[in-house]
Fold this sequence. Notes:
Elements: H1 2-17, E1 20-26, E2 29-35, E3 42-52, E4 64-71, E5 80-85, E6 87-89, E7 92-99, E8 104-112, E9 118-126, E10 131-134
Parallel strand pairs: 1-10
Antiparallel strand pairs: 1-2, 2-3, 3-7, 4-5, 4-8, 6-7, 8-9
The chain binds copper (II) ion.
Amino acid sequence: MKKILLSTVLLSSLSFAGGFMDMGTSGDIHVMLSSDKVLSEGANKIKVELNRGEHGGAVVAAKDVRVKFFMPEMPGMPYMESKDICKKTGEYFECNANLPMNGTWQYQVFIKDENNKDYKYKGSVNLGQASSTHNHH
Ligand SMILES: [Cu+2]
């Protein structure tokens, strides 16, 4: 049993090594975003995990989870955004982000929990860069 647990931990940390991960809190919800691959130009799959109170807390049975990735207007370039309504997949949510160009993208996650309370989580990511942030400790 211990061996199985250890290899699961190793596998999940290996898959994060070259991928994308961001964690933080919004009110009393711990939000974790991740993707097996580094976020890049084109289609990206994002996994959203929500836990009450802290990392590893009770899974939040959210009613609605949405993501918005956007890049502000710049000289010679219009504002761009990609929005998606996430699908519940087991204990987490899955969304797509279609990012038309390289660079730094801002993102927001909008969550409506089981009690209809609204939460918003914000972050940013440089495409092509492996990232792992944990900004709530
Ligand atoms: Cu955490």
